[in-house]
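To: structure desk
From: M.T.
Subject: fold request, one chain
Message: Could you run this one when you get a chance? Sequence is below, nothing fancy, just the single chain.
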Amino acid sequence: MITFDLLRREPDIRKYRQGETIFKQGDAADCMFAVVEGAIDIELEGAVIERVLPVTVFGEMALIDALPRSATARAASDCSLAVVDQQRFLRLVELTPYFALHMMQLITARLRRVNPH
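Reply: Done. C-alpha cells follow.
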C-alpha cells in the first residue's frame, strides 16, 4: 500500500508502551499518527470504539480541522508510531494525490461506521 510505505519511512517514529496515553480527548492537536507496529485503542468516554492496527492512521481529524482531539488514544500493546505534523501532511498530499484520497476514504469509512444512515 503506497500510503503505508510512505508513512513507515517517516523520520519521526515514536515508541509507546502498552497502556501509555498518546493523547486525550480535548487535547490540542498538532499531528496525526500512523501505526507502524502494535495496536492503538481509540476510546470515547472510557469505551474502546476502534482498535487501530498497522497500515492505519489516527488523529487525522484534529490535524485537518484544528479542533481539539475528539477521542483518547491509548497503546493497546507496545507500539511504534510515525508522527506526521501539518506541514508534512500537506507535503504528502502534494507529492502523492492518492494519499489525500486515502485519507478521505478513511475518514468517510469511520463516519459511516458511527452513523450508517
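Reply (cont.): The longest helix spans residues 97-114. Let me know if you need anything else for the meeting.
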